[in-house]
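Researcher: Good morning. I'm working through a list of sequences from a screen, and I'd like to move beyond sequence-only analysis. For each chain I'm collecting a predicted structure so we can compare shapes side by side. This is the next one on the list. No need for commentary yet; just the structure.
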Amino acid sequence: MNVKAIPSVPLRLRTDDPPELLEVRGEIYMPPAAFRKLNEGLAEEGERVFANPATPQPAPCARRTPR
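Model: Good morning. Structure tokens for this chain:
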């Protein structure tokens, strides 16, 4: 997964002494208002809308190159 694709995740650690190895784990959360806005935008563009908020979240992480 490419965590760089998530805008709220910082790209640099804020420390002068970073660990040699860092494993990042977590969950992606999409607030209901953001989900509705996403679906509204997709509908306006004639695209398929998502049935539930869990469906669109893995897509940014699946890309090998973040946008």
